[in-house]
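Hi all, long-time lurker, first post. I run a small reading group and we've been trying to get comfortable going from sequence to structure in the token notation. Rather than ask abstract questions, I figured I'd post a concrete chain and ask someone more experienced to write out its structure so we can walk through it together at our next meeting. Sequence below, copied exactly:
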Amino acid sequence: MCKAYGFNVLHEMASYKTFVLSLFQRFNAPHVFSYDARHHHKLAAFRSFNFSRINYDIYLECFDAGALRATNRCTRCASSDHDQGECPYRPPAASDPFLSKKVTRSAASTELCRNFQEGKCKFGKKCHRRHLCAGCGGQDGQAACATCQKKQGSKE
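-- Answer (accepted) --
Happy to help. Here is the structure in token form:
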């Protein structure tokens, strides 16, 4: 083939092979096979060996959004080359001081829980807001706080 058509055709075919292999990384195999077959048929129809030229009409027909490969992203390093089970990076150690710190409710928020003030908080210890009396800072909500009840009774 090299004697009849020259080394340019061989170079074009090698670059076309690299192009097709790159398509396999981005698109599903049936779509790549369809593009390759249609591209070869078009070249044969025109008796051309111009493999280096991409036929964009065929490309756009074969590679729509449905042809894209589903990408699996590693949740540890965010790479699309592998899943988390195959990740080359080790998981963080359990003794890592940043992972072992638990945020307490009082440190998580300085905002007081309005539902607790009325005695209606459904979250209990899991609530992200502080469970303190808004009037005196006691452990009961303002509606049930004896200290605040006495203060309101003396004002009236």
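A couple of things your group might point at:
Residues 2-67 form one domain.
The chain is about 45% helix and 0% strand.
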